[in-house]
Automatic annotation (TrEMBL):
GO terms for biological process: methionine biosynthetic process; methylation. Residues 1-23 are annotated as: Disordered. CDD domains: CIMS_C_terminal_like. Residues 1-11 have a biased composition (Polar residues). Residues 24-351 form the Cobalamin-independent methionine synthase MetE C-terminal/archaeal domain. This is 5-methyltetrahydropteroyltriglutamate--homocysteine methyltransferase. Keywords: Methyltransferase, Transferase. One of its GO terms (molecular function) is 5-methyltetrahydropteroyltriglutamate-homocysteine S-methyltransferase activity. It holds the Pfam family Meth_synt_2. InterPro entries: Met_Synth_C/arc, UROD/MetE-like_sf. It comes from Bacillus swezeyi. Signal peptide: none annotated.
Amino acid sequence: MTQSTEWSQETRTQKKGPYRADQVGSLLRSEPVKKARLQRSAGEMTAEQLREIENEEIQRIVEKQKEIGLKAVTDGEFRRAWWHFDFLEGLDGVEGYVPESGIQFHNTKTKARGIKVNGKLDFTNHPMLEDYQFLHSIAGTHTPKMTIPSPNMLFFRGKLEESAYKDLDEFNHDVAQAYKKAIRAFYDAGCRYLQLDDTAWAVFFSEKGQEQIKAFGRKPDELRQSFANTINEALDGRPDDLTVTMHICRGNFRSTWAASGGYDAAAETIFDGLNLDGLFLEFDDERSGGFDPLRFVKRKDLQIVLGLITSKFGELESPDAIKRRIEEASRYVDLNQLCLSPQCGFASTEEGNLLTEEQQWEKLRHVIEIAEDVWK
């Protein structure tokens, strides 16, 4: 499903995301939330007490997002330990477990956590619906943005037990149908701006990724089409007034990364094969390659959000350098289809990146100020 409306700058900037200055979603967990989560884990606090503290801190950071000038506000993923596992574990047929090792990043590993698919997949009574409803209730005139992992992440990070699914086509179909229900449920709860976060595409970007594809027992072309089909099936029939975007990156943990390489090997599928309204793309350093793959953007209604501001470190980029990169990208995609954001969230896991909360807000202010100057 695509939308044919050609948005004016005023409409795209003021009324509907992605906005000229936008954000990916996760924010550094505050000290009260970190302390409360530790107390809850130690049995020193009830779930209700923890939620009360989370509510207070989410209200604070939402007001801060409004204050600095963001149009879309998130809950910072303050109730999550992981950007993906927490949501995926809430699906029927999925449960968490502790594997032998964590996920490998550049020179570091996450703590050990995994998920396995051990039953029929479905979306029924998911706890994050209540999380969204709280965000919606405090967003006011701003747009509440919900972020969830892409359906591809269940294949990419999930351990598929043979007792649950012997056939991958059946698995992919059930994933898509579960997500279709999820999208409808968030919409019914009031959500009009939904983002799918996806690191699975990174397997196509490097030689290391090609080895992962072999380990999956798949061929690159087959897997690319499988990823696209699952996303598009999940999105099929979504309401016309629901904006769905996708954030694609190469991993984000404690200011480091998991993968490298440009978008080239999957560019045609990503830019001309997904029925999304916008793409948030990591472009903050040389690991992401150049803008040439943007030549595959054919649709005039697809917004491209350039992740040119890094969320990994606190130092502010040169505004002139960022403006030059936006100008370079505009050689491939019309400037009115471009937006600006950090390349990722600030805390894809509860540990967070290596910068302070004030540096985080300065980064987001930086995005807003540059965008206001570019799209006057």
